[in-house]
Amino acid sequence: MRSKILAIVTLLALSASAQEGTRSVHLLGVGNTNILDTYLSQEKYKGDGFTYLYIREGATPEKRWNNVIEHELDFSTTEDRSKTTTELEAGYNLYWGRYRQWRLLDDHLRLQAGGLINGTLGIIYHTSSANNPVQARVALNLMPSGIATYDFRLWKQHFTARYELNVPLLGVMFSPNYGQSYYEIFSLGNYDHNVVPTTFVSAPTFRQQLTLDWQTGDRIAIRIGYLGNYQQAAVNNLKQHVYANRFLIGIVVKR
């Protein structure tokens, strides 16, 4: 019995220590979305979008390497120029990155360079189309990434400015071919180059964040900022983009 209790206590201690030295961020975003998917329509659709963004990153100064994980949930409702047709977009993006960090300017400036693995899963739904009304969005990307963080004081308050940039390198995505239906792909099994390798030329996707934290306590900060996520591709004689611009607000919790 003692050995079981000791094992449980040890696991709890290890779990608690694993939580230390990390920073968790919860953000809500609102802004505009611009959609083009020529599989569904030749028109561009514009409207409003909402985002929930969760970020978990290392905050231990003595470590040279640290990990960052981000979960991004998006939903948008958009209309064409005549405001007679609607497209709905929903997506989930997972970003897992590993960074080498450097601390400069008496530890006020932290620079991080590394790479992200980005997985995308989502749909675009064309509400007025009876033939092929849905387009799936499935992709996996490798993205070089950099983060700059600067701590400063103003009006006797502690602030932190942070900028993150993720740029495209290569990946793979799912796409029907021009004129090909989902019925042909999944019911008839007619494969036609539907799993497509991508590069920064065919899928120039990039993403950036600019945020400002106001430290309101030893472990709590208020964060406001901007998120720009520009996902685009031109494969199989089809073009697609989802441009999302969001104003962000939320909290930062340091463990």
Overview of the structural elements:
- The protein is mostly beta strands.
- The protein has a single domain, classed as Lipocalin.
- The protein contains 2 helices and 12 strands.
- The chain has helices spanning 2-19, 182-187; strands at residues 22-37, 44-58, 65-79, 86-104, 109-126, 134-154, 157-166, 170-174, 195-199, 206-215, 220-235, 238-254.
- It has a 10-stranded antiparallel β-barrel.
- The longest helix has 18 residues, at 2-19.
- 27% of the residues are buried.
- Mean pLDDT is 89; it is low at 1-19.
Brief synopsis:
The chain has helices spanning 2-19, 182-187; strands spanning 22-37, 44-58, 65-79, 86-104, 109-126, 134-154, 157-166, 170-174, 195-199, 206-215, 220-235, 238-254.
Helix share of residues? under 10%
Portion in strands: over 45%
Spatially, the strands of the biggest sheet line up as 1-2-3-4-5-6-7-10-11-12
- Distinct helical segment count: 2
**What characterizes the major β-sheet?**
10 strands, antiparallel, barrel
Structural class: mainly beta
Low-pLDDT residue spans: 1-19
